[in-house]
Amino acid sequence: MSEGRDEEKREPGGGGRPAAGRQEQPPWPSRVPASRPARMGVYLVLLVLGVLTASAGALVQSGWFPGGLLLALAGAVGLFWGGGKLCRTRVGAAMPGAGWVVTAFVLTSPRPEGDFVFGAGLGSYVFLLGGVLAAVMCATIALPAPPVPGHKYR
């Protein structure tokens, strides 16, 4: 009877050492949060944050050129990369990217009064192109390799 219990506590592969309280790692990548409705809620929040980041960046990038342009692009890249890392999925980076891209291009369209949010200048084009490239790169970059269990190479 005690032999059966001892076998349950040993390492896989018959290493002979007891598996002292080791926990099984979740399948990689484990999505955060694990439940589907909660994950959809996180994706929706990331989409709204993408809209807000594009709106704020459109106003800041031309106001404090060139520092505002760098600040706006850094905020967008941080949001895209952070969404991917938070959710551990490519959709986590794609949702704020989609909100950012749609909002930025809506803001480039002229209004009936003839006003634009973006001025015709190099900074506006760098902001649009840089933000789109950052969104695509963060959404398509490969996820990191799965973690190696600590006992594998001991």
Low-pLDDT regions: 1-11
User: Percent helix among the residues?
Assistant: 55-70%
Oligomer: single chain
Mean pLDDT value: 78
Shape: elongated
Termini separation comes to 30 Å
What share of the residues does DSSP label as strand, in percent?
A: under 5%
Total helical segments: 5
Largest sheet: none
Q: How large is the radius of gyration?
A: 23 Å
Number of strands: 0
Structure, described:
With 154 residues, the protein is mainly alpha-helical. Helices cover 61% and strands 0% of the residues. The protein has five helices and no strands. It has helices spanning 2-8, 36-63, 67-87, 90-108, 122-140. The protein is elongated, with a radius of gyration of 23 Å. Mean pLDDT is 78; it is low at 1-11.
Features:
154 residues; disordered N terminus; mainly alpha
Can you lay out the helices and strands and say which pair or pack?
Elements: H1 2-8, H2 36-63, H3 67-87, H4 90-108, H5 122-140
Helix pairs in contact: 2-3, 2-4, 3-4, 3-5, 4-5
Summarize the structure.
The protein has 154 residues and is mainly alpha-helical.
